[in-house]
Specification:
193 residues, mainly alpha, elongated
């Protein structure tokens, strides 16, 4: 694969990630974009003899996936335990059981407080792992920016990190989306000659 091909794949991948929140089948489009960016980063890491360009992105993705898996696992276990605590049949054969529950009697602070605490701690863990994952991405894009001389990569890395931190107030998602614009600009700006 040539550098020109890697540049195009990276740019197209960034654009696919950019448009993935829009329309149907967004998950597939976003995943395809991530794969294309990974392929491009692999080529640039090889070309510039800087394995950190690719390795840091892999570490970031693994950290984010681990965070999501742990988050979902904790939620499922907590929900299952709550259902058992409420004395509900967990075989799921009789869905009308939810209609027969006297919610006013079982909806007490003592019953739900431990689960609320678990959910809050689970969210904190997810937040921390996303910030760690974004720091790996920032390192990768900073390295790529240094090697290519394209400042847009460093800006994209910084905005991804800042966006991860600011997801606590929801504006972070918009900042991370803007980072994808800089990432696409960075890829399309690379001089391959």
């Amino acid at each position: 694969m040539t550098l020109e091909t890697a540049k195009i794949l990276g740019g197209i991948g960034a654009v696919l990630m950019l448009v993935s929140p829009i329309g149907m089948h967004t998950g597939i489009v976003g995943i395809a974009g991530v794969i294309l960016v990974l392929i491009a980063l692999s080529k640039f890491a090889y070309h510039y003899k800087e394995p950190g360009i690719f390795n840091n992105v892999i570490y970031g993705i693994i950290t984010a996936i681990a965070g999501i898996a742990i988050f979902i696992s904790v939620l499922v276990v907590a929900a299952y335990d709550l259902i058992k605590t409420l004395g509900l049949d967990v075989s799921w054969t009789d869905w009308t059981i939810f209609q027969r529950i006297k919610w006013q009697e079982i909806f007490t602070w003592e019953t739900f407080a431990p689960y609320i605490i678990v959910i809050v701690l689970d969210l904190v863990m997810l937040f921390v792992l996303f910030v760690v994952a974004s720091s790996f991405l920032r390192r990768s894009f900073s390295l790529l920016g240094e090697k290519t001389g394209i400042h847009a990569f460093k800006t994209a890395g910084f905005l991804i990190f800042l966006g991860a931190i600011l997801t606590i107030i929801a504006v972070g998602l918009l900042i991370m989306w803007i980072a994808l614009i800089f990432l696409a600009i960075g890829f399309f700006s690379i001089k391959t000659t």
